[in-house]
Write a structure and sequence with these properties.
By secondary structure, the chain is of the alpha/beta class. The chain has one domain: Purple Acid Phosphatase, chain A, domain 2 (4-Layer Sandwich), CATH 3.60.21. The protein contains seven helices and 16 strands. Helix 1 runs parallel beside helix 2 and helix 2 packs parallel to helix 3. The longest helix has 23 residues. It is globular, with a radius of gyration of 18 Å.
Length: 277
C-alpha cells in the first residue's frame, strides 16, 4: 500500500490542491497530514474556523468521491478551540479520519496520531507539554496564551500551569495500543531527538527525548514527523532510523514549493519530493 505524507501546510490552498492531484497521479491509498493544517493569518479564531468549514470540508469531499483516505490532525499552531469543528467535518466523510490521539486501521496497517508538542518559546501553548520529569523550560518570548471561545487567555505563570498537565511521556503512554507494532505507523507532530530531524535555524536541536524513548520502546514500522520546518535543510537529514524504525520528516520551507514523501508500506521504499505549486 502506498501513502503520501505531508505536514505543516498552514492553510496553503495551492499546496493542498497539489497534494490531491498527486494522490491521483500516483494512485496512493491514503494521505497522512501530520499537523499544522490551518492558516496563520488574520484573526485565528475566525480565519481558522472558516478554513475548516469553507475549504477543508469540500476538499475532503474530493477524497471521499475518489475513494482515497485522508488521515490528518491539527497541530500546535492550530487553535485547540477548533478541534470540535475539525472533528465534525472529518466525521462527515467515511474516508476522512481525525487521527489526533486515535488509532485507525487500513489494509492491515495501524495508524496512530499524536499532536502534542514539547514546549517551545512561542506564546501559543494549547498543545505544549513538558517533555518529562525535570524538564527545563526555554526562555520564553512572552506570557503563555491559551485559546478560548472568547479570545486568548494570558497565563501569568506558564511553567506552573504546565506542571499540572501530563508530560509528553505520559501523553505518549496514553495513546491507543497497536495490535502489531511491526505494522504500525505513528504520526507524531514533534520529532524525536538525536536523529537530525529536529534542527532549527540556529543549529540547535530541539527534538523530544520522550518521543525518542517511545519509539525505542514501541519499535513501530514507521514514524512521521514535522513541526521543525527547516530541519532537513539545516541537517541534510529527512529520513533516519531508530533501531529498525524508519523516521521521516519531509520539511516544508517555501510558500510556493510543496515538500512531501511517497511511501510504499510493503516494500518501505520512501521518496521525498519538492515541487513548485
Amino acid at each position: 500500500m502506498k501513502i503520501l505524507y505531508v505536514t505543516d501546510l498552514h492553510g496553503n490552498e495551492a499546496k493542498y490542491r497539489r497534494v490531491f492531484e498527486t494522490t491521483l497521479k500516483y494512485g496512493v491509498a491514503a494521505v497522512v497530514n501530520g499537523g499544522d493544517m490551518l492558516p496563520l493569518d488574520g484573526d485565528l479564531h475566525g480565519s481558522q474556523r472558516d478554513f475548516i468549514e469553507g475549504f477543508l470540508s469540500p476538499y475532503f469531499g474530493g477524497y471521499e468521491k475518489a475513494g482515497i483516505h485522508h488521515m490528518g490532525m491539527l497541530g500546535n499552531d492550530d487553535l485547540q478551540i477548533h478541534d470540535t469543528v475539525f472533528d465534525g467535518v472529518c466525521r462527515k466523510y467515511k474516508h476522512v479520519i481525525n487521527l489526533a490521539q486515535r488509532r485507525f486501521e487500513l489494509a492491515g496497517f495501524e495508524f496512530i496520531g499524536m499532536n502534542r508538542v514539547t514546549d517551545y518559546p512561542f506564546r501559543l501553548k494549547d498543545r505544549c507539554r513538558r517533555d518529562g520529569p525535570g524538564y527545563v523550560f526555554q526562555e520564553q518570548f512572552g506570557a503563555g496564551l491559551l485559546s478560548t471561545p472568547e479570545g486568548f487567555k494570558e497565563l501569568e505563570d506558564w511553567p506552573a500551569y504546565a506542571a499540572a498537565l501530563p508530560t509528553m511521556e505520559e501523553e505518549l503512554s496514553a495513546l491507543p495500543k497497536p495490535k502489531d507494532s511491526g505494522r504500525t505507523i505513528y504520526t507524531i507532530h514533534t520529532p524525536p531527538s538525536g536523529l537530525g530531524l529536529d534542527v532549527i535555524s540556529s543549529g540547535e536541536r530541539v527534538g523530544s527525548q520522550a518521543v525518542s524513548r517511545f519509539i525505542g520502546k514501541m519499535r513501530p514500522l514507521l514514524t512521521l514527523h514535522g513541526h521543525i520546518h527547516e530541519s532537513p535543510v539545516m541537517s541534510g537529514v529527512w529520513k533516519a532510523k531508530l533501531g529498525k524504525t524508519v523516521c521521516v520528516q519531509p520539511c516544508q520551507m517555501k510558500a510556493r514549493v510543496l515538500s512531501y514523501a511517497l511511501i510504499n508500506l510493503e516494500s518501505m521504499e520512501i521518496e521525498r519530493f519538492e515541487e513548485p505549486v
